[in-house]
Amino acid sequence: MKMIEGNEKLQPPTIPEVLRKAREDFPILKREVHGKPLVYLDNAASTQKPQSVIDTITRYYGHENANIHRGVHLLSTEATAAYENARAKIARYINAADSSEIVFTRQATEAINLVAHSFVEPIVEAGDEIVITHMEHHANIVPWQLLCERTGAILKVVPILDNGLLDTEAFHKTLGPKTKFLSFVYVSNSIGTINPVKTLLDAAKERGIPTLVDGAQAVQHKTVDAQSLDCDFLVMSGHKMFGPTGIGALYGKRSRLDGMRPYQGGGDMIAHVSFEGTTYKEPPSRFEAGTPHIEGAIGLGAAVDYIESVGRDVIESYETELIAYAIERLKEIPNLRVVGDFEERAGAISFVMENAHPHDIGTILDTEGVAIRSGHHCCEPLMRRLGTVATARASFSLYNNHDDVDAFIEALKKVNTLFG
After folding, report:
1. How confident is the model over 44-65, as pLDDT tens digits?
2. Domain identity same for 182 and 253
3. Residue ranges of the alpha helices (H) in 128-223?
4. What CATH number should be reported for the domain holding residue 394?
5. For residues 362 and 341, what is the distance between their CA atoms, to the nearest angstrom?
6. How far apart (Å, rounded) are the C-alpha atoms in residues 197 and 7?
7. Helices and strands (DSSP H and E) totals, the chain
8. What is the distance between the alpha carbons of residues 301 and 297, in angstroms, rounded to a whole number?
9. 288 and 315, same structural domain?
């Protein structure tokens, strides 16, 4: 994006035609909030849904609703085909080696808990170490704390620098002979930091340490290639990538999944059951006990189709320019400080204002039709490290534009007017 100096007007990014049309695909963006056009900047919490995803779910319930895998009747076979087709779409989307490496979960949170229970717990003992970073979402902290309580393992935390970037020098020192697992976020949900993922993964691989990447804030903004990254596990949430709530996916290398114990027991994950013992199906069925979120998986497959119809390179390039435009315009607001002093960020901008609490900021912006997030963003340790208890966060997606940013800035000016 060209930055303008002097009295010239700051130029917003050019919207690619495919994205200009894409905005029309999201029906909720046509509504008003408090009599004002909706400006939705809470995408890191949950994205809106395109009509194609809504239609896909409606079609499932109205045309092919049945339980999967168990039936020989037409509706069951159609539902099964749609469910497994969605699994194949996700495998292609992240370039998994095979669709059997994709396990459907409720969301990224359950995927992390599954790995903690089924893969990590059996390989650790008292005194072993699990490594995470200081910028993790609670979903990538609490499961490991629970595991450490059960096993006597030790949770080690890689620090971050004052500017919000990972301390890579400290990272290399943290990995040691007792490190049994590394789990870290690709993109920070709260401040938008993009971690040097490949560097971290390569360092772990050199030491024979298995790895998990929390991709919940990455897969909708960037092209993520599981085989190129060479991570052992990767997790994602459907509702953050234009899909339904309550659905997500775990990618796991088949060599890892094969040796893992079940996470839950029940129907459809078994090969044979007797009162003397049970044998289990091969992955991924082994980890999908009971009737799954069928329409959620199918809807997530439709969301993947939608993202690919727009183009991930187009999305990443445009969102990068839009965030740069927003950062530049935020400089117009007195008393405001952007949290995280770095140039390359994805998805989110967190900020604080000297004269207003983040919750007050969020409330006032809502009266102007602008939806942002206020609070600790499920990152309390990170907030404390950055010297605050909460921030206001604006997070962006492919359907946002410079008009949204301009409305956001004008609403922030009203905050300053009200609080002085």
Report:
1. 999 999 999 999 999 999 999 9
2. yes
3. 142-151, 168-174, 197-206
4. 3.90.1150.10
5. 22
6. 40
7. 14, 17
8. 6
9. no
Q: Which of 290, 309, 328 is the last residue of a domain?
A: 309
Same domain, 298 and 320: no
Strand partners, 211: 182
For residue 235, give both structure tokens.
């997790």
**83 within 8 A of 292, measured Cβ to Cβ:** yes
pTM higher than the cut 0.90: yes
Q: What is the pLDDT of residue 8?
A: 56
Partners of 272 in the beta sheet? 279
Tokens of 169: 């020098």
What tokens were used for 135? Answer: 């910028």
Q: Which two tokens stand for residue 126?
A: 């008292």
Do 212 and 64 belong together in one domain? yes
Rounded to whole angstroms, what are the CA distances from 128 to 108, 148, 330? 25, 9, 45
Parent domain of 191 = 53-309
Residue 234 in domain: yes
Question: In one letter, which amino acid is 379?
Answer: C
Q: How far apart are CA 262 and CA 118, in angstroms?
A: 6
Catalytic positions? 378
Count of domains forming the chain: 2
| Pairing of β 336-339 and β 348-353 | antiparallel
